[in-house]
Structures are given as structure tokens and as C-alpha cells.
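ESCALATION

Customer reports they have been waiting on this structure for their group meeting. Please prioritize. Original submission:
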Amino acid sequence: MTNIAIVDTTVYKPARSARVVAFGEIKRFTFKIVDYGSHPCAYVGCPLDHPVATSDDFDVNCHGGLTFAQQGDGELFDEELYWIGWDYAHGGDFFLYCDSDLNPMEGLPGRKWTVFEILDEVKRVIDVLHDTYSRFKRGLSQLEKKDEEATGIRAYLRPKAHLPSR
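Update from on-call: job pushed to the front of the queue and completed.
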């Protein structure tokens, strides 16, 4: 199921707090695109038993690599999910600087990402996460089945206890 809401197509808008500019659900994975004023970030919420949440070695190919990975805090991020994220504030990306009154002072020249470009990358990342999770669940199911079969065989082959007769 795909459910996408684009709240605002403008990013790099000076603000005192994070603004969610797009959110939704794709293939049962929740996502958010957040504008911090200086730069946008993308986040994807994964089930707590997803390999990305349970492995230190899991890496996701996304713009600049993962820069955020933790269980939700209950505020911006649902605490029932493990969230990964990446930012668009790397070399070659536009970055907006503002004064204390949020007046734009200058920006680092570079590419200004649109909500739609970021959403395309979110979809690619979710495709990978979904495929990985599906394979992981299938593998668990097969292991559980084999374990049940082995338990049944062990129970069948277990020698009966011989109690001393009285």
C-alpha cells in the first residue's frame, strides 16, 4: 500500500524548528521528509525486528550514507519503529545559513534538492528495506519450520526413561 502526503514542496525555508514537508507509508514502511531550514533530511521507520535495527553491519545506499539510526523518540518519530535517516547537507549540496532572526545570510552553493527528488530516493531505499525484510522473514519462517521438525524428531527418538522397578 502506498499513502503519500506532500505538505509543502518548499525546502530550505528558514525556520526555528523542523518542518515535516512530506510523510506517508510505502510497502508498510513509514517515511518522513523534514526541512530543517538549512537543509532537508529523509527518514524511514522500520519494524524493530528488521535487520537494519538489529545489526551493526547493515548499511543502506543513500545520498551521503546514513547519518541517523535509532528507535523513535515518541515525538517526531514513532517509538514503535526503528528510524534511519540521511541528510542533504554534503559537499555539493546547497546549505542555507541564517542569522538569529532567521534572515537568510548566505548559502553554500550547490544542488538544491526538491521534495520530489528526495521522495524518489526514499522509494528506492524502501524497496531495498522491504526486499531485505521479506527475505529475512522468509528465512526465519524456514528456520522455525526446520526447528519444529527437528524438535519433533528429537522427541520421537528420545529414549524412554527406565525407572527402577520396586
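Sent to customer with the following note: Residues 152-166 have pLDDT under 50 and may be disordered.
Escalation resolved.
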